[in-house]
Write a structure and sequence with these properties.
Layout (H helix, E strand, L loop, with lengths): L9 H8 L3 H8 L7 H14 L5 H17 L3 E7 L5 H20 L3 E7 L7 H9 L4 E5 L13 H4 L1 E5 L9 E5 L1 H14 L5 E4 L7 H16 L18 H11 L3 E4 L2 H9 L9 E5 L8 E4 L2 H17 L11 E4 L2 E3 L17
Parallel strand pairs: 1-2, 1-3, 3-4, 4-5, 5-10, 6-7, 7-8, 8-9
Antiparallel strand pairs: 9-11
Helix pairs in contact: 1-2, 1-3, 2-3, 5-12, 8-9
């Protein structure tokens, strides 16, 4: 029988460098308490000796460290940029917060809410709170993408950070968000499966939700590309805003079987011109968490909050603090939600009376 090959251990690295085994463990996990020069020495020596982490031991130690954090009552911060009076954003925030708190509690964490006022240039007070409470993990909620890098540059050094949905600095940090592009395809397929053929899309004004337009329009146009010409409806003119009368004329001219609406203010426009769903026209909504009686896509906002907390806890346990070398974006898919605003197609003829 062949001789069993010796597997390099942390103790071997410690003996070679004259360091304590605990120092080796911390250095290999990029713990900031170990000087960067020492961390690099340890990594170089580990590579030279052919050291390979045992995945089972690593997983077990992550669990142990997580339990230790729970025992100490560790806290995460939810840093939100004030978004002004908006019922829609308030509903989204509360869904995120409730799910995040529930998941944090299951992992042994609590969540502290902190707010950055509009046009705030100094965040020194927030930094003091985070450090005084021993908070090392931060969630960011910035629905209008108002934050700039200078305001939160302190997060680039000593904190693990995950962005919720979107943010003015979203490209710098790990992010958990709604998969709007996927959700548009799911919605189109669901409506087509229910017998609808001429599917219209009512977009937000260009200046209010450019992110939504950029993600859903390509999917909608690609879907049309694979359909008969008579099933393809043009988009409303892309202007800074359009009047209620513009919407009425578009509906009367193109006569869609059903319309997809991306945000609640567009629903209000339909009501203003006398369109009742589904009596006059079937209407599907991207985001039924906001208007729960509507048919359409549930964006699983709660799952975004839950996943973000799990992601953040993992980053803390792995000692991944500061800016990530390669930011990761996690996209949460939505699902079709039955409601009262999409009327079944009968004998191939949808109900439209406008």
């Amino acid at each position: 029988m062949g001789k069993i090959k010796h597997r390099t251990s942390m103790q071997d690295i410690a003996d070679r460098l004259g360091l304590h085994r605990a120092t080796i463990s911390l250095a290999l996990r990029d713990d900031p308490s170990i000087p960067e020069v020492t961390r690099q020495r340890v990594k170089d020596q580990a590579a030279a000796l052919g050291y390979i982490k045992n995945p089972y031991v690593s997983a077990w130690m992550q669990q142990v460290r997580s339990l230790e954090s729970a025992h100490m009552g560790a806290s995460l911060a939810l840093l939100k940029c004030e978004y002004g009076p908006s019922e829609t954003r308030a509903v989204i925030y509360n869904l995120l917060l409730d799910a995040a708190r529930h998941q944090a509690k299951s992992l042994g964490f609590s969540i502290t809410e902190l707010t950055i006022p509009p046009n705030e240039t100094s965040t020194a007070s927030i930094q003091r709170i985070l450090r005084a409470r021993g908070i090392s993990g931060v969630l960011i909620f910035d629905p209008l993408a108002l934050l700039n890098r200078r305001q939160i540059d302190f997060l680039e050094r000593d904190f693990a950070t995950v962005v919720l949905l979107r943010c003015g600095v979203v490209g710098l940090y790990n992010c958990v968000t709604v998969d709007l592009a996927h959700n548009m395809i799911v919605l189109l397929d669901a409506l087509e499966h229910r017998g609808f053929r001429r599917i219209g899309l009512v977009l937000p004004a260009k200046t209010t939700k450019p992110g939504i337009n950029r993600l859903v329009v390509p999917q909608y146009l690609y879907w049309q590309y694979n359909r008969p010409v008579n099933a393809c409806l043009p988009l409303l003119p892309c202007v800074d805003d359009y009047r209620d009368e513009d919407l009425r004329q578009w509906l009367e001219l193109h006569r869609p079987d059903v319309v997809i609406v991306c945000r609640p203010p567009n629903l209000e426009q339909l009501r203003k011109i006398g369109i009742k769903a589904p009596a006059d026209l079937s209407v599907a909504l991207m985001g039924t968490e906001i208007e729960t009686e509507y048919s359409g896509i549930c964006n699983n906002i709660g799952e975004v909050g839950k996943t973000a907390v799990s992601f953040l806890a993992q980053e803390i346990n792995l000692n991944h603090f500061g800016l990530p070398r390669a930011p990761v974006s996690v996209f949460i898919p939505g699902r079709w939600a039955d409601g009262a605003t999409v009327c079944p197609v009968e004998n191939g003829k949808p109900q439209t009376t406008f």
